[in-house]
């Protein structure tokens, strides 16, 4: 009886290869379904898997068949309805059942569209495909790097606290063995000869005395070899190597003034969650700082950021000042990758917009990796938008975009983080 053992790496998911082939083959339809799902989902389940429905016509294999056009002559045996010269109408296509997209039978049955379930990882992979963090490569080359100390063998120079006792004793033993090996062999031979002479009757007394003198001299020479010498000392060696920083902080600045209704806040929240998911796939350690502002800015937690009912007037510069203070205290630019995303409806005091320009120009944009501003409004742009547009001409790490409805969120997000041409 033959026994078969399955040693494949994906023994518990034997269809993994076929699954990947299927996703690659129908990636266009799946990506379209994924992008449509972003706008349909609620904010709480935006990062879960998705059921993808693919029309049957898109997964059917191509076949060769006779065309329906042209003039044809056919013989229909048993015909009792038509006579020579009559034109036969084309039979109707489609049928009842399902979505009407499959082949119908005489019983009115059909085929439904093919439904394909993708996992959370596959969903996010397709959602953020062909996207990257802007200016990341350039900033990596210019930023200060961190150094990590690690053990790098042993050295003959060092401070007493770094002495490695075991390696030093081992080196001492090797040196003493090399320096005394010949003398010990000679000593052993002389001692053996002295023993034989002492056991021999009538042996020469002078020879015995001479041997004893030689033995004593060799012993003194062996004792003079130091147990440990400075040459034997070995010290633990430590070196430093560059380690790329993998920590990032994202500042989320949201306008919660009276002009921001719940629908506008919901669109801002969708954008922030997409940005958070995107950054977590790039950085191992990611911290998020939530800042709400009206006339005053305040750092809050996630729940208060999205669900607090506090409202008031609008002074955008208050949020920018608070962001700069937090960044200076907790997130040094040489150790952290700093990102910021600001969402507003563009409503701001006219006198405050020039101050926002100055804050961004001098205190924020020189230190952040990327600053994205989305204005969620259907109205004409006001002074804040115009000031920000001027900054985009001076800084390539800032972008401003306009969102009018929920369907614009994902396309705008892809536009902000699309891969840059090399």
Automatic annotation (TrEMBL):
SUPFAM superfamilies: vWA-like (SSF53300). InterPro entries: UPF0229 (IPR006698), vWFA_dom_sf (IPR036465). It holds the Pfam family DUF444. Residues 180-221 form a coiled coil. Keywords: Coiled coil. Residues 67-111 are annotated as: Disordered. Residues 71-90 have a biased composition (Basic and acidic residues). This is UPF0229 protein EDC91_12939. Belongs to the UPF0229 family.
């Amino acid at each position: 009886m033959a026994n078969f053992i399955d040693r494949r790496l994906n023994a518990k998911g034997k269809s993994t290869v076929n699954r990947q082939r299927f996703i690659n083959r129908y990636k266009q339809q799946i990506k379209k379904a994924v992008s449509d799902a972003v706008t349909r989902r609620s904010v709480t389940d935006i990062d879960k898997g998705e059921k993808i429905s693919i029309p049957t016509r898109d997964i059917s294999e191509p076949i060769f068949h006779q065309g329906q056009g042209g003039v044809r002559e056919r013989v229909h045996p048993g015909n009792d309805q038509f006579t020579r010269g009559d034109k036969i109408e084309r039979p109707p296509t489609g049928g009842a059942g399902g979505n009407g997209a499959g082949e119908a039978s005489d019983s009115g049955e059909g085929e439904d569209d093919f439904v394909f379930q993708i996992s959370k990882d596959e969903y996010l992979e397709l959602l953020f495909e062909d996207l990257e963090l802007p200016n990341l490569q350039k900033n990596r080359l210019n930023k200060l790097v961190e150094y990590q100390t690690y053990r790098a063998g042993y050295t003959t120079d060092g401070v007493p606290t770094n002495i490695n006792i075991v390696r030093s004793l081992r080196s001492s033993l090797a040196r003493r063995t090399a320096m005394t090996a010949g003398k010990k062999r000679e000593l052993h031979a002389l001692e053996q000869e002295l023993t034989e002479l002492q056991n021999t009757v009538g042996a020469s007394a002078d020879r015995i005395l001479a041997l004893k003198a030689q033995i004593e001299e060799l012993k003194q020479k062996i004792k003079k070899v130091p147990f440990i010498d400075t040459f034997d000392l070995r010290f633990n060696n430590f070196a430093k190597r560059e380690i790329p920083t993998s920590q990032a902080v994202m500042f989320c600045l949201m306008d919660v003034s009276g002009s921001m209704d719940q629908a506008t806040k919901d669109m801002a929240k969708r954008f922030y969650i997409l940005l958070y998911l995107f950054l977590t796939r790039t950085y191992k350690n990611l911290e998020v700082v939530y800042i709400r502002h009206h006339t005053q800015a305040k750092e809050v937690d996630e729940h208060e950021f999205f669900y607090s009912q506090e409202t008031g007037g609008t002074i955008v510069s208050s949020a920018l000042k608070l962001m700069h203070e937090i960044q200076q205290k907790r997130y040094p630019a040489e150790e952290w990758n700093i990102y910021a995303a600001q969402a507003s409806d563009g409503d701001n005091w006219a006198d405050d917009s020039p101050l926002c320009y100055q804050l961004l120009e001098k205190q924020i944009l020189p230190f952040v990796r990327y600053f994205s501003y989305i204005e969620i409004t259907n109205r004409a742009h006001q002074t804040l938008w115009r000031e920000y547009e001027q900054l985009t001409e001076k800084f390539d790490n800032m972008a401003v975009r306009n969102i009018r409805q929920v369907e614009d969120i994902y396309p705008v997000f892809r536009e902000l983080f699309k891969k840059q041409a090399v």
